[in-house]
Amino acid sequence: xxxxxxxxxxxxxxxxxxxxxxxxxxxxxxxxxxxxxxxxxxxxxxxxxxxxxxxxxxxxxxxxxxxxxxxxxxxxxxxxxxxxxxxxxxxxxxxxxxxxxxxxxxxxxxxxxxxxxxxxxxxxxxxxxxxxxxxxxxxxxxxxxxxxxxxxxxxxxxxxxxxxxxxxxxxxxxxxxxxxxxxxxxxxxxxxxxxxxxxxxxxxxxxxxxxxxxxxxxxxxxxxxxxxxxxxxxxxxxxxxxxxxxxxxxxxxxxxxxxxxxxxxxxxxxxxxxxxxxxxxxxxxxxxxxxxxxxxxxxxxxxxxxxxxxxxxxxxxxxxxxxxxxxxxxxxxxxxxxxxxxxxxxxxxxxxxxxxxxxxxxxxxxxxxxxxxxxxxxxxxxxxxxxxxxxxxxxxxxxxxxxxxxxxxxxxxxxxxxxxxxxxxxxxxxxxxxxxxxxxxxxxxxxxx
Length: 449
What we know:
- This protein has a domain at 41-187.
- It is globular, with a radius of gyration of 25 Å.
- The protein is 72% helix and 6% strand.
- β1 (147-148) and β2 form a beta hairpin.
- By secondary structure, it is mainly α.
- Strands 1-2 form a two-stranded antiparallel ribbon. It has a two-stranded antiparallel ribbon with strand order 3-6.
């Protein structure tokens, strides 16, 4: 059986792709939707001075705005209609997931199946609009107080500017939320992840060019650039290996006899990913750590004395020992926290017990839940250590050698993870297409026979 599956998988080639009309349509739809998104990142907000915005944001590249700008593909630094990007939707999704873990009502909705999932998605959309309104108002008010020298970022501040900015930014986020859902339904892969992926990848050539420019001007040496590129390839290979790593727990189903026939008795595996939390821990940790530096930078632009906040920001700068320790601690904390949210050992143990399945050598019920929790804890320790290593090494290069922010560990994690998921989606579509072709051929042969 395994050899037949391997032969079928190996037969997925360019010829099979040429015949997969539906898959080609999905790919073209995805590419077109991402092109529309990229065009939207160049349409500026009305009533702002682009030159002043560019100068102001050039001083905030290392703060939390640098992370958000990386996710938005440069839309935030250009202050376009898609400046908020898809981040309010991601935040709302995480909040709904967290509330599901602590609210009995939402947890009951999660267990209702498709209808409950639709209700939760509706709550996520409402939450997205609410967060987008709050963030858009904050951006509008913040822009009015920004100056690049004697030039104001906003041409005519006031209530009309705030209303127009809020409507435009909220509309842009709603459009991207709809576009992501369309990509998920009619395209290839997860739409939200692909939008973030497109924003990061679109700026990688510019980051690579700026790195080469640093080498040309002598800011960094040519051997270091070659070593850095080799290390980037090695980190990508390491990420691929760790993201594909799983711990497979053997699950046995008991035999059942109905009349003269015996059913069941099969064994399968429960795959537990080494990195269950994904890229959430680095994103949250970076955002929290860079928040003081960003606020201090804005206060400096506004002309007020940052005081204690500036001292905290200096201690928490890139490459500083306190920053590294806090970064690792937050990554470990969010790895365990988010893993506990997305995987419930008690619930999975109950599901196994209801289906009659069991882990050999472990009694069903509480013992199974304790065993799953024990295995998952050990896996999370390794996964958190992996995330910390991947994220800390690029941070050292960024702080000491002026390597562009787009080569950071978080961006590499997102790019590699989304690429792997998209390739897996394409591969599954090709396999499904070949299975359909085999079924049609067998039916035709049966009719002829």
